[in-house]
Design goal:
With 437 residues, the chain is mostly helical. The chain folds into two domains: 197 residues, Arp2/3 complex 21 kDa subunit ARPC3; 199 residues, Orthogonal Bundle (Hypothetical protein af1432), CATH 1.10.3210.10. Helices cover 66% and strands 2% of the residues. The chain contains 20 helices and two strands. A two-stranded antiparallel ribbon has the order 1-2. Helix 19 packs antiparallel against helix 20. It is elongated.
């Protein structure tokens, strides 16, 4: 947003104007301003900590304000916290104004829904059962307003197509905001109880611990991704003919896993397996990887050591799980004629059978030093022809289904991998699978 389009500035100005309208009734309110000030300080402190240590926004205090205060006063809590929180990217003033305004509008709308559904009376009487419905309505409203506003800024500022701008925003925000909503409701009920505000603040302690654990998970996951990225970049630098191959095999492996109905955790592991399957090429002489033309039998034996090299390299990385077996066995064949151990049939780990199909498919549809890329339909036909002898028929059928349904045209960029689906090209004359180094 550094070079902010005029349309984006106008959009932000409109949201800021809406936020000011939400705050207009403030002078007429009879509300405990000390509570507003305390919640504002807590929210500002939570945002400051979140930006430095944790992912996301500190919603429990915001939602406690929604459940405790009139809507304009709750919106004031959001305003002060957002204006005081640091902004990492430029233009800082515009970003801060945008964040404050969208939160004011969303919190005000959530407060209006909560009060309209009778939530205020339930909180005053500490009737948690009757407060749950209005609280759920407030959470849904908060998520809906943030989704509408965030999608709009993506369209006008980032030029994201309208059909994609709002996709998934609501569902991604619902679970975390819902959990924070329960914490905010507990804070509000305790605040109104004989135990008072001090007891309400104690709710933040377990929330802080759980948030810290969640942040640790994200940091660990980021370290995993960085480790994999470094290994893949090293392989791509060494073997220029297969640059981008690892990411494409990871994508194809993920498509097969999803088509087979595997759970998300396993899908992610198989993506790692596809990305890392050729990491052992770091142990192969560069002159062999870059050799134009066919390899001698002795040179091929050297290259066929790369699965074992790769397995040694990733053996100590515990988070890879069954991906390590795929690195070692992705060149095994169903009929036992593969390498390095000549495993056959079900002796070959399932992860390796997935990656073997994905690897062969990308090898056939990519230009290499020793072969030209084949059209996608011919590559699929070749996989089907070799199913049962070289490849697992179940994995082949899964890839064929998903590619014929969605297309295959991955685009590898400097930042990583994105894919778009296009209709497969028209078939031409069939041929045999090329050697996949």
């Amino acid at each position: 947003m550094e070079a902010v389009p005029a349309g984006a500035r106008a959009y932000v100005a409109c949201v800021v104007g809406g936020a000011l309208l939400c705050l207009l009734p403030l002078p007429l309110l009879r509300t405990p301003w000390w509570a507003v000030a305390l919640l504002a300080v807590l929210y500002a402190g939570g945002e400051w900590l979140a930006l430095r240590r944790f992912p996301g926004t500190f919603y429990p205090v915001l939602l406690a304000g929604v459940f405790l205060l009139p809507p304009p006063a709750a919106a004031l809590v959001a305003l002060s916290g957002a204006l005081l929180s640091p902004v990492a990217q430029r233009p800082a003033r515009l970003r801060r104004a945008w964040r404050a305004a969208e939160l004011v509008v969303a919190v005000w709308a959530a407060g209006r829904v909560f009060w309209a559904l009778g939530g205020r009376d339930a909180v005053v009487t500490s009737d948690v059962a009757h407060a749950l419905g209005p609280a759920a309505g407030a959470v849904l409203t908060l998520c809906a307003v943030l989704t509408v506003l965030d999608g709009g800024i993506l369209v006008v500022a980032e030029r994201v197509p309208a059909r994609r701008a709002w996709r998934g925003l609501f569902l991604r925000s619902l679970a975390p905001v819902g959990v924070h909503g329960l914490a905010g409701l507990m804070m509000a009920v305790l605040w109104r109880s004989p135990y008072g505000a001090v007891a309400a603040l104690l709710v933040l302690l377990p929330m802080g611990v759980s948030w810290w654990a969640f942040a640790q998970y994200h940091r660990e996951r980021g370290a995993h991704q960085a480790t994999i990225r470094a290994l893949v970049q090293a392989v791509d630098i060494k073997d220029r003919y297969t640059r981008g191959h690892s990411e494409r095999v990871g994508l194809a492996s993920m498509m097969i896993a999803r088509e087979l109905g595997m759970d998300d955790e396993r899908v992610e592991v198989l993506r790692f397996a596809g990305i890392l399957h050729d990491v052992g090429k770091l142990g192969v002489p560069t002159r062999l990887l870059r050799k134009d033309g066919p390899l001698t039998p002795e040179e091929r034996r050297v290259i066929e050591l790369h699965p074992e090299y790769g397995h040694e390299m990733v053996r100590g990385i515990s988070f890879l799980g069954e991906a390590r077996a795929a690195v070692l066995h992705h060149h095994e064949r169903l009929d036992g004629s593969g390498y390095p151990y000549g495993l056959a049939g079900s002796q070959i780990p399932e992860s390796a059978r997935v990656v073997a199909v994905a690897d062969a498919f990308d090898a056939m549809t990519s230009n290499r030093s020793y072969s030209r890329a084949r059209p996608v339909p011919l590559a699929l036909e070749e996989l089907e022809r070799c199913a049962g002898r070289q490849f697992d028929p179940v994995m082949v059928a899964a890839l064929v289904r998903v590619v014929r349904r969605s297309g295959w045209r991955p685009v590898v960029t400097a930042d990583g991998m994105r894919s778009r689906s296009v209709p497969p090209p028209a078939p031409s004359v069939p041929g045999r699978t090329g050697a996949n180094r």
